[in-house]
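Friendly challenge for the regulars: who can give me the structure tokens for this chain first? No prize, just bragging rights.
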Amino acid sequence: MSNHSETISYLPDERPPFWKLLLYALQQVIVMFPATAAVAIITGFHISTTIFASGLATICFLLITGRKIPLYYGSSFSYVAAISGLMSSKALSGYVLDEKIAVAQFGIVMSGFVSIAAGLIVNRFGRDSIEKILPATVTGPIAMIIGLTLAGNAMSDAASISVDALGTVRVAKSQIATATNMAWIVSLVTLISTIMFSVYLKGIWGQLPLILGPALGCLIAGIIQWTTGINLFKTLPAEEIGKGVFSLPIFTLPKPNWMAVAAIMPIAIATIPESTAHIYQLDIYVNNLAREKHSNKKYNLADMLGRNLIGDGIGDIVSGFIGGPAGTNYGENISTMAISKVFSVPVLIAASVLAMIISCFTPLINAIYSIPTAVIGGLEIYLFGTIAAQGVAIMVEKKVDLFCSRNIAVIAVIMVIGIGGQYAFGGNIPIFGMEIPCVAGASIFGILMNCILNIGSNKEKIQNA
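First reply, four minutes later:
Bragging rights claimed.
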């Protein structure tokens, strides 16, 4: 009887049946798509190229890491301000769009070498060398602020309506209020149904809450459009329309520019603790699942931190070389795996191939892109909250002493700088004439604070493990 009710799950080296694999892969693509496409829209990069680059970079990452680390590479918001600022700078005012992208690509490619260098240091001096700089008191809070700094995006998306939701831009306030209420209905249906599906459904259906929930949200949005005329679905940007059914992404080559290197390359420092936090999250969740399945195999994912960082850097180089934004492994996809208990590397390979195929078919790009922002917002509330919760899990798993004044100091400054920078300055902290992304600023300051406080201290008392 117990076997009959046992939850279906897959460890990194396990492969689901083909039809299940496709469904799990589609779920990963749906989760990855909104944020990755959003980065492309914000920075001015081509959406189809960005999606293709994420799939190709993921395949390269999985191959470089020996197909042992189940992570998906997607466009990172940490680079948005730097890339957007570079492309809108006066120095590039005479450039056309593809020329601006080419300049930014050079900075993105060079930023990959920062992660590679960090990975080589870990491989040379061991995991302990990086854990002295990035203990759980640093990686845990960083994971938390990654999720919490996106909370505002989730809530605004949940109440978002498209520009043409009412058929015209100039409408009465009452009509806008009505459309916003409809958006809230759609986002709440998506959120609640996704949670219910993940908690109460069993078997294969219990592993697809991030497809079933958004599908129900889209159904409700369709009913609202049919009954009220309020259209919450989105349409592609003008440059993506009229390409026909099949259209290859627009590939551009990097154009050497040292201003791009100065603007973009330093941001890679912020993705190192982010990527480190993700690998620790995976190590905890995968090994916990292995114990639940009574498996004798130990998945030493945290010991592969160096290879993970190298793979992350290679992902930046691959993505940047063909015209995609800089990125990192995705917390949203980790949350999806944690919720569905599907950590299968073959699933992520299939998701990568699927993303690359979708990027070449305008109707498929249009279908996924048209998902109402309200649906995505409902999903984001759950996903971003899960990312933050995983930060807590890191500190619990590593038994961080929250009564130690040193630990409290490090956690406190990371949390306040990260979250405060997001809500006080919109994500970029103005300091000494620079605009520092809040996650990067919090990460760097937390790392420096941890190093300073640990000078001459007793390692066992501080509990840096």
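The two ends are 40 Å apart (CA to CA). The longest helix spans residues 97-125. Your move, everyone else.
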